[in-house]
Write the structure tokens for this entry.
Amino acid sequence: TVENGTKVTLAVKAGEGYQISSVTVNNGAGETITDDEKETFSKELTITENTDIEVAFVKVYTVSVTWSSEMGTVEADPSLSDGGMVTVEKGDSVTITATPEENYQVTQVVTNGVSKTLDRNKFTRENPYKMELTPDQDCEIKVTFALKSYTVEADYTVGGTVSISNPTVNHG
């Protein structure tokens, strides 16, 4: 119980793995929670009546993406932070797009230790690799870029043999 006109500070802190979704005072329109306030929120209130405060938290997962930046770029929707991370609310998805530099390809994507080897030269600058992920845990994704590779094959007729010392070569 406080006297009429008393100022109090409302302080809200999300627990690990959660963010603040909404804060509502006296069934009002609710407070706007900015990106900077999703972990901690503070507001001074002047109490002039009985006051009800409702706070909702939402479960979130962190998706961390690493790659060799000189060989390509990786983008996400929602956007990655400078550290290659994005926070996704439970039930929401994130789209990862890996675009190799010219003459490079995406050769492998590892998600939480599970490797997905990709067809040679399938995902190139003209055809970026895309994946949509709805996480149910924190995720680590590693994208591997490499030079495009080519196969050398020979067709020949009866009368001799052809051998190729290195049938697969990298661009350049």
Q: What stands out?
A: The mean pLDDT is 89. The CA atoms of residues 105 and 124 lie 5 Å apart. The chain has no helices and 13 strands.
